[in-house]
Design a protein that fits this description.
CATH class of the largest domain in chain C: Mainly Beta
Largest sheet of chain B: none
CATH class of chain B: Mainly Alpha
CATH superfamily of the largest domain in chain C: Cupredoxins -  blue copper proteins
Oligomer: heterotrimer
Radius of gyration of chain B: 23 Å
Shape of chain C: elongated
Strand order of the largest sheet of chain C: 3-2-1-5-8
CATH architecture of chain B: Up-down Bundle
CATH topology of chain B: Cytochrome C Oxidase, Chain A
Largest sheet of chain C: 5 strands, mixed
Strand content of chain C: 15-25%
CATH architecture of the largest domain in chain C: Sandwich
Shape of chain B: globular
CATH topology of the largest domain in chain C: Immunoglobulin-like
Number of helices of chain C: 11
Number of strands of chain C: 10
Order of helices and strands of chain B: HHHHHHHHHHHHHHHH
Chains: A alpha+beta (241), B mainly alpha (532), C alpha+beta (382)
CATH superfamily of chain B: Cytochrome c oxidase-like, subunit I domain
Number of domains of chain B: 1
Order of helices and strands of chain C: HHHEEEHEEEEEEEHHHHHHH
Chain lengths: 241, 532, 382
C-alpha cells in the first residue's frame, strides 16, 4: 500500500526486535542474580571475603596430607573461640584457648559441649576465621563441623578438629582465630538418623559418607554441582593478602 | 493522512480512539495514550509524596526532642522503613516514568510510546503494588521495620509476617519499572522522527535511555534477591542463614549490586531535566552536549562496580576496600564534568529567574553539596566514622530532595503550561521555591553536624548533645512539608485556570515539544516532524 | 570567551584561597563540638585529619562552584546582559575539569589508603576481647582472662518516657562498662547471636558490624585515660537505639585490679550457682540482681514491660500461674517472640531466684511464690 504503511510496519518490526533483545537481557539478569550466589562463594574463596572458605567446611585429600612439610622457622598463634547462636541452651567452649603451632604441623584440638536441656538436640557448628584473609590457609583433616552433631538430653561430649596451617601463609600473619558458632537445627533435622550416622561413621562400618568425598557438599540449594576440585593443595593460589 | 490513519487502526498496537479521549472513568482505566498515562503517573506520585512526607513528619516529630514523644520504637522503625520505600519506589521513580511518558514522545517526535498497552499495565501494576505495600500496616505485627534496605537476618530469619507482603509488592514494583523501561527503550530506539540522530536527542531522552538500561540490568537482581528472601522465610532454604551454609553478608552484596545503580536511576533523569532547563533560561546552548552524554553513560557503567562502598564496616579484605574506594572516587569525575558543564552553561548567558530556573539552579548548588560529602565518604578509612550515622542521612537526602525532587519540581513548572495549556501562578511558584529552598537546608544541613558528632541513624531517641540541631531539623521539616501544599495547589489550579500559555511558553526554548500547541493535543506527531 | 572564563576562574581562585586562609582557624574552632571527634587513638586522629582534609577540599570546590554560579546570577542576568554569549563547548576546559578532579581524588586516595592499611593490621595485640551483639545488649568476653559479662543500658525508663528529668549521660550509660588499659593494643573480635549489630565508639575511631555466624575483628590503642561512649550503629530491631557502649580506659595497674576483682566476682558467682540451700529471702535478693541485669531492658524495672512487644509481668498469667510454665519459658525461650532462652546463660539458682523475684514483686501474688534451684534442675532434665 502506501509508503507510510510500510514505514509503520518497519517500525513495528523494529519495536518487536528491541523488545525481544531486551527480554533476553532481562532473563539473563534474573538468572545472573542467582548465579551471583556461587560467584560470591568463589569470590570469598579467592579474596577471603568474610572469612569463608571451603577449606573450613571440607576435609583435605589424603595425598595432600602426605605431602605436608612442617615449617619450623615460625610459630603461629592459633586462638580458638566458641559462640552460641540465639542462646542455644548448650555449653560450648574450646578445651584450649590458644596454641602456638608451626605451619604444616598436624594437630588435634577439642571443644566441649554439654546439652543442659531435657531434650535431644541436633547441632551444626559454623566455622569462621579472623583475620578474614586466613580462611583458605587453614586445612582440616577432620572437623565436627563437617557433620550435624546429635546431642542427647543432658549429654556431654568432646568434639574434635584435626588441622594444620598451610605453609604458604603470608609471613606477616602471626596470629589467627578459629571460631565456631553453634546453631540448633533440631527442627530441620532428624535426631535418630543423625545419631545412627554418627555411630556408623565412628565405628567405620559399612558407611559411605558422601559429604566426606571430594565432591563437597554445600547446603546452599542450586549450587551443588558447581563446586570445582578445590582441594589441590599444591595449586593453592595464596591470594590472601 | 486519512488513509494512513485507517491503516494504523488495523495495526494491533494502534490507539483505541483517534478522535479524542473517551469519557469518564474508563478513559483513565483503559487508556493507552502516553499523555493520559503520564498524567496518571504524575498525579499518583504527587499523592504518594504527601503520604511519604507525612511519614517523614512523624519521624521528625519523634526526633524533635530527646525522649520518646509520639511513637513507640517499633512504630518508629516502621515509619523509617516505609518512608524510604514509599519515597523511592512510589514517588521518585514513578514521577520520572510519568515525565518520560509525557515528554519523550513529544521530544523525539513520536506519536505515542512504542508499547501503549504495556504502558497502561505498568501504571496499574504500580497502583496494585502500592496498595499491597500500604496494606502491611494492617498485617499482624505491623509494617516492615527493618529499614528500606531490609537486611538479613532481621528481615529474613527474624521477619515479621508483613515482610512477605513487602516482597510481593517489590516484585510488582519491579515488574512495573521493567515494563516502563522496556517501553522507553523501544520508543527511543524505533520511533524517533526522521533526522533525529542519537547525538541530536535532547538530554532528558538520553539520560532516560541510559536509566532504562540500568533498570533492566538491576531490577531483575532485586527480584532475584527478594525471591531468595521468600524461599528463606517460607521454604527452608538458607541463602542468608549461616546455619545452612549461607551468609548474611551476601545479602548486602546482592542488595547493593541493585541498590547503588538504583541511586543513579533516581538521579540521571534529574540530570536530564536540568540540562534542558538551564539553556532555556540562560538563553545559551548547553555547554558540552557530547561530554554530557558520555559522562552520563560512564556514571551508569561505573555505578555497577561501586556497590561495596555501602559496606566498608561489614568486614572486607583490604584489597576489596581499596578497589571500591577507587571506583567510587572515579565516579566523581564524570559527575564533576556535569556540574562544571552546567555552570559553564549559565556563565555569560542572559539569565532570567522563572520558577523552573530557580529550582534548576538550586539543584546544581545543593546536589553539589551532596556530591562533595559523597566524595568525603568515599575515603574508606574515614567512612568508618561516617557509616550509618546522620552524616549519611544528610548526604543522601541532599542528593534526593534538593537533588532529584527539586529537578522534578523544575521539570513540572517547565512543562506544566504545555500539559495544561495554562500558565501556573508565577508569584506562588516563586514563594514555593524560596520556602522550599530555605526549609530544605534547615532540615538537612544540621544532620551533617549531629552525624559527625556521633548520632547513629534509624534511632527514635538520642542523647542530649544532639537536641538543638534535631529541633532545628524538625522545624525545617514542617516548614518544608507545609510548603509543598503550595505546590499541590499551584499544579491543581493550573489544570483548571490561569493565563493561557503560548505554543512556545518560554523565551525561544529549544525542542520539538515547543512546536506543538499548548495544551498539547491528545494526539501529536501522527505525521513525524522533520528534524534538521 | 573561553579564555576569559579561565582567566576569571584563576583570579577567583587566588582570591578565595586568600580569604579562606584567614578564616580557617576561626571556622574550625566554631564547629568543633559538632564535628567528628578528634578522639583518643592514633587511628581516630588520623581519620579526623583525613576528614578535615577532605572537608576543606570539598569546601574549596564548593566555594569555587558557588562563586561562579553567583557571579553568573548577579552579572549575567538578562537585565544586565541582554545578549548571551554563544559558546557551547571547549575541549581545553573540558579536559581541564576532567584532569584536575582526578588529581584531587588521587590526593585523597593516597592518605586514605595508608590509614586503611594500618587499621587492617591487628597483629601483636596484647588483649583479645570478644564482643557479641544480642538483641539488645552487648556481651563482652576477655578471651584469655576468663572474664565475661553482659552490658545493659541503665537509663531509667522514666527518663525515656519524659516522666523524669534526663541526666547528662542519657541513653549513653550502662550497668557494666568495658574496661581496657591505655597504651595497649586491644583486639576486638565481633560476632552476633541474632541479627546484625555494629559496635561504634567515635572517640576510638572504630566501627564494625557484628554478623551472626561470622567473626570480624578490629583493634585499638587508647592514648588517654577516660570514659568513651558509643552506640549500636546497625538497625537491629525494636530497641536498636537502646544498646549503648561505654568504654573506660584506665592505667595498667588499675586494669589489673579490675580484672582481679572481676575474676573473684566470677568465682563467687560460680559458688553461688553451686549453692544448694537457698532460703526464700536469699533467692529474693539474688533475684533482684539477676532481674536488673537480664530482664529490665524489656520488662522494665516497674515490671510493666513495653507492650505489645514486651508483655508486663504484673498480673501476668504465667507469673501468677504454676511455676513449671515459667521455668520452661526461662529455660527455652518463647519461640516467635524476642523472649530468649536463658538455659545456657543462667545457673539453676539464678533462674530460680529471678522467678521468685517476679512472683513476689509489684504486688504479684499467685501460686508457687518461691521457686527453688532444685525445681529448675528437675525441669532441665525432663
Amino acid at each position: 500500500m502506501s509508503i507510510k504503511n510500510k514505514q509503520e510496519e518497519q517500525k513495528q518490526r523494529g519495536i518487536r526486535r528491541t523488545l525481544i533483545k531486551s527480554l533476553i537481557g532481562l532473563v539473563f539478569m534474573f538468572g545472573f542474580a542467582f548465579a551471583l550466589v556461587p560467584i560470591y562463594d568463589v569470590l570469598c574463596e579467592v579474596t577471603g571475603l568474610n572469612g569463608r572458605s571451603q577449606f573450613l567446611t571440607n576435609p583435605v585429600k589424603q595425598k595432600n596430607i602426605d605431602k605436608v612439610v612442617v615449617d619450623y622457622s615460625r610459630k603461629i598463634k592459633l586462638q580458638f573461640d566458641a559462640s552460641n547462636n540465639k542462646h542455644v541452651p548448650i555449653e560450648f567452649e574450646p578445651n584450649q584457648r590458644n596454641t602456638l603451632i608451626n605451619p604444616g604441623d598436624i594437630k588435634t584440638f577439642t571443644y566441649r559441649v554439654k546439652n543442659t536441656t531435657g531434650k535431644d538436640m541436633v547441632l551444626q557448628a559454623i566455622p569462621s576465621t579472623s583475620p578474614n584473609e586466613v580462611a583458605s590457609y587453614l586445612r582440616k583433616i577432620e572437623c565436627f563441623c563437617f557433620n550435624q552433631q546429635p546431642l542427647a538430653a543432658g549429654e556431654e561430649a568432646e568434639l574434635s578438629v584435626r588441622l594444620y596451617i598451610h605453609s604458604s601463609l603470608p609471613k606477616e600473619i602471626n596470629a589467627m582465630t578459629l571460631s565456631y558458632t553453634l546453631y540448633d537445627i533440631t527442627e530441620a533435622s532428624d535426631f535418630q538418623k543423625i545419631s545412627v550416622e554418627k555411630n556408623a561413621r565412628e565405628n567405620d562400618i559399612d558407611y559411605i559418607a558422601p559429604e566426606h568425598d571430594d565432591d563437597h557438599e554445600h547446603s546452599i540449594p542450586g549450587q551443588e554441582s558447581k563446586q570445582e576440585e578445590h582441594n589441590d593443595d599444591d595449586d593453592h593460589h595464596g591470594t590472601g593478602t | 493522512m486519512n488513509e494512513a490513519t485507517i491503516d494504523i487502526k488495523t495495526n494491533e498496537m494502534a490507539h483505541d480512539d483517534h478522535h479524542g479521549p473517551a469519557k469518564g472513568i474508563t478513559r483513565w482505566l483503559y487508556t493507552t495514550n502516553h499523555k493520559d498515562i503520564g498524567t496518571l503517573y504524575l498525579l499518583f506520585s504527587l499523592l504518594m509524596l504527601f503520604v511519604g512526607g507525612a511519614m517523614a513528619l512523624v519521624i521528625r516529630t519523634e526526633l524533635f526532642a530527646p525522649g520518646m514523644q509520639i511513637t513507640t520504637p517499633e512504630f518508629y522503625n516502621q515509619m523509617v522503613s516505609m518512608h524510604g520505600l514509599v519515597m523511592i519506589f512510589l514517588v521518585i521513580m514513578p514521577t520520572f516514568i510519568g515525565l518520560a511518558n509525557w515528554m519523550i514522545p513529544l521530544m523525539i517526535g513520536a506519536p505515542d510510546m512504542a508499547l501503549p498497552r504495556l504502558n497502561n499495565w505498568s501504571f496499574w501494576v504500580l497502583v496494585i503494588a502500592s496498595i499491597v505495600l500500604m496494606s502491611t500496616f494492617f498485617v499482624e505485627g505491623g509494617a516492615p521495620s527493618g529499614g528500606w534496605t531490609f537486611y538479613a537476618p532481621l528481615s529474613t530469619e527474624y521477619a515479621k509476617p508483613s515482610i512477605t507482603f513487602m516482597i510481593l509488592s517489590i516484585h510488582l514494583l519491579g515488574m512495573s519499572s521493567i515494563m516502563g523501561a522496556l517501553n522507553i527503550i523501544s520508543t527511543i530506539f524505533n520511533l524517533r522522527a526522521p533526522g533525529m540522530g542519537y547525538m541530536k536527542m535532547p538530554l532528558f531522552v538520553w539520560t532516560w535511555l541510559i536509566t532504562a538500561f540500568l533498570l533492566l540490568a538491576v531490577m531483575p537482581v532485586l527480584a532475584g534477591l527478594v525471591t531468595m528472601m521468600l524461599t528463606d522465610i517460607h521454604f527452608g532454604t538458607s541463602f542468608f542463614n549461616a546455619a545452612g551454609g549461607g551468609d548474611p553478608v551476601m545479602f548486602q552484596h546482592l542488595f547493593w549490586f541493585f541498590g547503588h545503580p538504583e541511586v543513579y536511576i533516581m538521579i540521571l533523569p534529574a540530570f536530564g531535566i536540568v540540562s534542558m532547563i538551564l539553556p532555556t533560561f540562560s538563553r545559551k546552548p548547553l555547554f558540552g552536549y557530547d561530554s554530557m552524554v558520555y559522562a552520563t553513560a560512564s556514571i551508569a557503567i561505573l555505578s555497577m562496580i561501586v556497590w561495596a562502598h555501602h559496606m566498608f564496616t561489614a568486614g572486607m579484605p583490604l584489597a576489596g576496600e581499596i578497589f571500591f574506594m577507587a571506583t567510587t572516587m572515579i565516579i566523581a569525575v564524570p559527575t564533576g564534568v556535569k556540574v562544571f558543564n552546567w555552570i559553564a552553561t549559565m556563565f555569560q548567558g542572559s539569565i532570567t529567574f522563572e520558577t523552573p530556573m530557580l529550582f534548576a539552579i538550586a539543584f546544581v548548588a545543593l546536589f553539589t553539596i551532596g556530591g562533595l560529602s559523597g566524595v568525603m565518604m568515599a575515603m574508606a578509612s574515614v567512612d568508618i566514622q561516617y557509616h550509618d550515622s546522620y552524616f549519611i542521612v544528610a548526604h543522601f537526602h541532599y542528593v534526593l530532595v534538593p537533588g532529584a525532587l527539586f529537578a522534578i519540581y523544575a521539570g513540572v513548572y517547565y512543562w506544566l503550561p504545555k500539559w495544561t495549556g495554562k500558565m501556573y501562578n508565577e508569584t506562588l511558584g516563586q514563594i514555593h521555591f524560596w520556602l522550599s529552598f530555605v526549609s530544605v537546608n534547615l532540615t538537612f544541613f544540621p544532620m551533617h553536624f549531629v552525624g559527625l558528632a556521633g548520632m547513629p541513624r534509624r534511632i527514635p531517641d538520642y542523647s542530649l548533645q544532639f537536641s538543638d540541631f534535631n529541633a532545628l531539623a524538625t522545624i525545617g521539616a514542617f516548614a518544608f512539608g507545609i510548603s509543598q501544599l503550595i505546590f499541590a495547589y499551584i499544579v491543581i489550579r493550573a489544570m483548571f485556570a490561569g493565563k493561557p500559555a503560548t505554543q512556545e511558553v518560554w523565551d525561544n526554548p529549544e525542542g520539538l515539544e515547543w512546536t506543538i500547541p499548548s495544551p498539547a493535543p491528545y494526539h501529536t506527531f501522527e505525521t513525524p516532524p522533520e528534524v534538521k | 570567551m573561553i579564555d576569559s572564563l579561565i582567566l576569571f576562574a584563576r583570579k577567583l581562585l587566588v582570591k578565595l584561597v586568600a580569604v579562606f586562609a584567614a578564616f580557617i582557624p576561626g571556622i574550625a574552632f566554631a564547629i568543633q563540638p559538632y564535628n567528628l571527634p578528634v578522639g583518643v587513638t592514633e587511628t581516630s586522629k588520623e581519620i579526623f585529619d583525613l576528614h578535615m582534609f577532605g572537608f576543606w577540599i570539598s569546601f574549596a570546590i564548593g566555594v569555587f562552584v558557588f562563586a561562579i554560579m553567583l557571579w553568573s546570577i548577579i552579572f549575567h542576568r538578562k537585565s544586565v546582559r541582554p545578549t548571551p554569549a554563544k559558546f557551547s563547548h571547549s575541549l581545553k576546559l573540558e579536559i581541564l575539569w576532567t584532569v584536575v578532579p582526578i588529581i584531587i581524588l588521587v590526593a585523597l586516595m593516597i592518605p586514605a589508603t595508608q590509614v586503611l592499611t594500618r587499621t587492617h593490621d591487628s597483629s601483636n595485640a596484647e588483649i583479645d576481647i570478644k564482643i557479641t551483639g544480642y538483641q539488645w545488649r552487648w556481651h563482652y568476653e576477655y578471651l584469655d582472662e576468663r572474664v565475661k559479662f553482659f552490658s545493659n543500658i541503665n537509663t531509667p525508663e522514666e527518663q525515656i518516657s519524659n516522666q523524669e528529668e534526663k541526666t547528662a549521660e542519657y541513653l549513653l550509660e550502662v550497668d557494666k562498662e568495658i574496661v581496657i588499659p591505655v597504651n595497649t593494643k586491644v583486639r576486638f573480635l565481633l560476632t552476633s547471636a541474632d541479627v546484625l549489630h555494629a559496635w561504634w565508639v567515635p572517640d576510638l575511631g572504630v566501627k564494625k558490624d557484628a554478623i551472626p555466624g561470622f567473626i570480624n575483628e578490629m583493634w585499638t590503642i587508647v592514648d588517654e585515660e577516660g570514659v568513651y561512649r558509643g552506640q549500636c550503629a546497625e538497625l537491629c530491631g525494636t530497641r536498636h537505639a537502646f544498646m549503648p557502649i561505654v568504654v573506660r580506659a584506665v592505667s595498667r595497674p588499675e586494669y589489673d585490679d579490675w580484672l582481679a576483682e572481676r575474676q573473684q566476682g566470677a568465682e563467687e558467682e560460680a559458688a553461688l550457682a553451686q549453692k544448694a540451700d537457698w532460703t526464700p529471702e536469699e533467692l529474693l535478693e539474688r533475684g533482684k540482681q539477676v532481674y536488673s541485669i537480664n530482664c529490665i531492658a524489656c520488662h522494665q524495672t516497674s515490671g510493666k514491660g513495653l507492650p505489645p512487644a514486651f508483655p508486663a509481668l504484673i498480673g501476668s498469667s504465667v507469673v501468677l500461674g504454676p511455676k513449671a510454665a515459667q521455668i520452661d519459658i526461662l529455660l527455652n525461650g518463647r519461640s516467635g517472640t524476642t523472649m530468649q532462652a536463658f538455659g545456657a546463660l543462667l545457673s539453676d539458682s539464678d533462674i530460680a531466684a529471678v522467678i521468685t523475684h517476679t512472683r513476689n514483686s509489684w504486688g504479684n501474688s499467685g501460686q508457687d511464690q518461691t521457686v527453688f534451684p532444685q525445681d529448675v534442675a528437675a525441669q532441665r532434665s525432663k
